[in-house]
Amino acid sequence: MRSATFLTRIAGPDINGSRVVIGTTARLLLLALVLFLAAPILSVLVRSLQDDTGQYVGLANYLHYLRNPSLSVSIGNTILVGLLTTVICVPLSFAFAYCLTHTCMPSKRLFAAVTMLPLLAPSLLPAMSFVYMFGRQGILRDWFPFETVYGPQGICLTQIFYCFPSAVMILTVALGMNDGRLYEASQALGASPLRTFWRVTLPASRFGLVNACFVVFTLVTTDFGAPKIIGGNFSVLSTDIYKQVVGQQNFEMGAVIGVLLLLPTILAFAVTRWLEKRHRSVFSSRSTIHRPARSALDPIAFVFCLVISALICLVIGIAGWASFVKFWPYDLSLSLNGYMFQDVDLNGWSSYVNSLELSLLVTVVGTVVIFIGAYIVEKHEHAWLTRFALQFLAMLPIATPGLILGLGYIIFFNDPANPLSALFGGITIMAVNTIVHFYTVPHITAVTALKKIDREFDLVSDSLRASRLMAFRRVTVPLSGSTIADIASFLFVNTMTTVAALIFLYTSDTKTAAIAAINMDDSGMPASAIAMGMMIFYTSAIARLLHLGVVRLLDRRIQRWRDPSS
Fold this sequence. Notes:
Layout: H1 2-11, H2 13-47, H3 60-67, H4 69-102, H5 108-115, H6 124-134, H7 152-176, H8 180-188, H9 193-222, H10 225-230, H11 237-247, H12 251-278, H13 297-324, E1 325-327, E2 331-334, H14 350-379, H15 384-395, H16 402-413, H17 427-437, H18 440-451, H19 456-463, H20 468-479, H21 481-497, H22 513-522, H23 526-562
Antiparallel strand pairs: 1-2
């Protein structure tokens, strides 16, 4: 009792007050994640075990699905395109990342920047671009090796383009962390470059390779935009959910397909986490950065990266050109007709405005909520059970496809008995859904940044009788400025480009640009659809440029704060 009184006198009442505020915030955030993440997912699982009257039927729905060949064929199709894309995309990504990290070729930064361009648009944009290139009236139709671009070949082609940047980022980090001492030892022992690659580079990068494979496979199997645009009659699980829920109002079968789609992503996530725990770091405090020497491989690497970058620019360039063409392919004169959205859609430009409003709302609210949640998990010393639950729930969205989350929101929030049902149908529920859907990556980013901030700042704050909230505002937030900007940029761009997370939640008044593009393509208005896709791309590109400028400014301010003489 005396020690507690003594600590209170030294620390001051402000610290106890901060502890109460932080603890209350932690419990409110935990409640929000339970309501807006765990409950919808659980609702999908429960609904898959019920009939249309709500009666429990066990595994009857699953048996019906598996015994119906017209439905169950989607499982094999989904696995097929997932494996084919992974087998092609990951080796290409590894070769590209290897060229960026293990050669002395010029223009590395330019190639790395071009590689990230596919992330600025939804997967439906490259799908439409490939239709314009290799479709029945495509300008490169004779170059396409298959009879038609629609089907598994089109899906795989689009997904390779769409997943390539994600795989390159993972593998660039993995290859960039290789210990330079291993290469020096290999060279001293007289090993050839090929032997060094097999004995040093590949073993040191195997965790990154496995991680890239799981990420690509998960992205492909859960994507909705590409199969919807270019899949044709080739059914996959993601489009089957849409058909069952929207087309037939069969929520029970939609829930069954959702659970089946959830299984591979959970398995991939679990295996990745297991491998991560078993993975031994190959880069320690004694490690050195590998600095490659000039070799005959440099010009080959340059040509390879140049070809890949040119293909990426070609796909996006074709989409941009097609959006200005008056009537493809008969009248290739330039026109703004494709951007006259009011002529082909009752919502006109309002869908694009909705995307901007939603993205800004998600960016502001999501950045604040996610950063505070990460701060509680990493810096709050008390309520370990609450922090553990927060960390567990924060990691759950990365293993949950957006389609499943959207379906869960329909089942859970569209129930009249739910007091929160008033939220359904508005932009608020769409914003909450999007924040939850993209919660994990910003959370990991924030936790990683907060780990780098020494706890001595908090101890000094305590010794000065300053509240933890003041330390959070005056020290933690300024030091994490670049990370906060990264989170904001991530949320904005992903909200602009997302389709799957919102496809079940929009109304005619809240339709977003990406969903409007899909509807336009379905209505036989491909020019307007691709123009809307390009508007998303332009907006995301501007956001990324602003982000780079803000980060550079914040880094300069932090450098001046750390070293006033600089």
